[in-house]
Amino acid sequence: MTSFYSEEELKDLGLGAYGDEIYISRKCSIYSPDKIILGSHVRIDDFCILSGNIIIHDYVHISAYVSLFAGHSKIEIESYSGISSRCAVYAESDDYSGEFMSNPMIPDKYRHIQSGKVNIGKYVVVGTGGTILPGVTIAEGASIGAMSLINRDIAPWTINFGIPCRKVKDRSRKLLECEEDWRNDMIMQEKRG
User: Fold this and answer.
1) What is the pLDDT of residues 6-24, one digit of tens each?
2) What is the phi/psi pair of residue 35, to 5°?
3) pLDDT band per the 50, 70, 90 thresholds, residue 147
4) Are the beta carbons of 155 and 137 closer than 8 angstroms?
5) What's the rounded Cα separation, in Å, for the pair 98 and 83?
6) Residue 2 pairs with which residues in a beta bridge?
7) How many CB atoms lie within 10 A of CB 186?
């Protein structure tokens, strides 16, 4: 027995949909599984929390202790992306200005929930300890350094870090060549049988 759910156990989770080669740790907490859609070749490690409307595309790795809090909004992670350990992604958050009360034990009429879809584009990597706030788009190919606070959209193919997160420089696109080589290798392997 491995630490990941078996195919039969995956069926019993009640996920909205999922593809092939799904590796979800048995130590992962999943809330509203029917609202979660996974592509193929997805790995979700120990002690992660997935809650609400979440779409994870193909070849995505979610490292240990990552929290994805989508609530009634949405979090979408596109293909070939990775979220490093101890990151938190919020598509909904309380208003901490002091104008309203906060926490889920308070009736909604006394709270002000800020919400907005979080989109993490293709080829994105988010370094350990990153925090992504509601309504943020991290565009294709962006890289986020460790311990960054992402509170606004991030431009494509850039390297960013800090509190708040800011562009440091452009990111190489050589990984696109690697992807093409990898796909060609897979085609050759299939032809060989």
Assistant:
1) 999 999 999 999 999 999 9
2) -100, 5
3) very high
4) no
5) 31
6) none
7) 10
pLDDT at 2 over 90: no
Cα three-residue angle 73-10-45, rounded to 5 degrees = 70
Phi/psi of residue 26, nearest 5 degrees: -65, -15
Give the 3-state secondary structure of residue 4: strand
Report whether 158 contacts 143 (CB < 8 A).
Answer: yes
- At residue 107 the predicted structure's pLDDT band, cuts being 50, 70 and 90, is very high
Contacts of 156 (CB under 8 A, 6+ apart): 121, 139, 140, 141, 142
Query: Could you tell me which residues come within 8 angstroms of residue 96 by beta carbon, excluding any fewer than 6 positions away?
Result: 102
CA angle centred on 167, ends 88 and 77, rounded to 5°: 40
Record the pTM.
0.95
Cα 155 to Cα 95, 130, 152, 168, 173: the distances in Å are 26, 17, 10, 11, 14
Using an 8 Å Cβ cutoff, are 33 and 9 in contact? no
| pLDDT surpassing 70 at residue 1 | no
Judged by DSSP in three states, 34 sits in helix
User: Phi and psi at residue 158, in whole multiples of 5°?
Assistant: -130, 155
